[in-house]
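Protocol step 4 of 5: obtain the predicted structure for the target chain.
Materials: sequence only (see below). No template structures provided, no constraints applied. The aim of this step is simply to have a reference model before the mutagenesis design in step 5. Sequence pasted as it appears in the construct record:
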Amino acid sequence: MTVEEEDDIEDVQDHLRDAVEGTLRLKRLLSEDSEDGTKKRAKTDRVPPEHRERIELLMSKWSAINDRVMLHVLEGLAFHELEYLDVSGFKPDPFNWQTKSPADQAANHAAVFREKETLGGGPLDTLLTFRSRWKLGQEADSLLRGLKHKDLRHVMEHYDGTQKLQDLIAEAQRALPLEGRTEGCMPDAPGLAAMGRFHRLELIEPTADAAVFGDANLSFALNLAKHRTALGHVGRVVATTFESLDVLRERYKEHFAEVHHEIDCTRIAMNPKFRGLEGSFGAVYYNFPHAGSVGGFFDGHPMVNWRHENLMRLFFRALRSFMKVGGLVKVASNMGAVGVRFSYITGGAKENEFDHVETVPFLQWNLHRYGRSYGDRRDKNRRPDQAEGYNAQRADKDMVYTFKYNPSGKVLGPQGIRHPPTLATLEECTDGPFFSVAGEAKKHLAKSLHERFLKECSGQHVG
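Step 4 output (structure tokens):
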């Protein structure tokens, strides 16, 4: 651990250190990078020999031996993804009409393959996610889909993969309705419909605290506070923004409240404003997460996309220490987003023991009416809800991904991260903002972008 890392973590309590290990490791990778990227890569190369052999084969087949950006992409893939790229017949098109580089095409092709192995980014009810989690077949669907609310909830809360479903259903039917809990209401209602209404009407635990991250103009947090007040909840709403108060006042004239500003949701264990809140959150919200736009690059480009994937992984790891067992996390995003892809959300949750319980269409969600924003400097002059739309995204494709914190009690290993590009890799990029620059100007741009990434990993918002 470097001296700077020791300073960062000095005030972090021992039981919270796992919550920030990943973000500090990411910062260290960028901090240790040097202009001699080739030497640094040779020193720290941990790609297994079989991966290296397959990578060299692909780069040779695609005539990309000297493409450092392609090397960065392939080194970040799992072995079965490299195999797929090899046997699928895929070959990057150097004259792609969408002006995507060969490396960008390979990264996207691998991502689409990876997502075909998931349930997809569209609507999913609680039974489909339950069956997927436990690898149950169609027979389970037939047994569970017609159950009453009380019985279905009992089965889903008590099933551990060892019981016979028929026995657990019989036990559920003998059990009394839950008393004194919101989940106990309407015990005889159709099970799937009732559980779906819980997630759409935001019937969260009344006494638990709720946290909102990344709410630039605070309109969502205000809606949530009003909603909880109307329901008689006594748990508080902890509203946060990533920007400073001065920036918010400049961008959002409607900004009205003093809340926790400059909060990086991946580093809350290091923030004194969250001290004492461990285990208190029964609900957490993060609407349309984004790591910040980088001028000249599309969000999916491999030189910047690693930030979006790491954002979700580190977000869920940071939350573990602050969630109540059984607490809900809701992340709204577009199922077709190429920045924070739906698989980054569901994958980051799964890695950190947050069970995927349902995917609800955003427009069916009781809290969907709020002032949408970009969350960056574009908001000073325009908003998505003022005849502005997100590129290639439609409102009917917006989803709310719902997760339940279900820790196993086991110690998790270090959080996996997507490695950032080295400075040398940035210097050899030929598209995006690097398309028309060369020589010293290109080196200066690469260094500037590398320094920006380092600031972002230190919790500074520069987008």
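Step 4 remarks: The beta strands are 209-213, 237-239, 281-287, 323-334, 354-361, 398-405. DSSP finds 18 helices and six strands in the chain.
Proceed to step 5.
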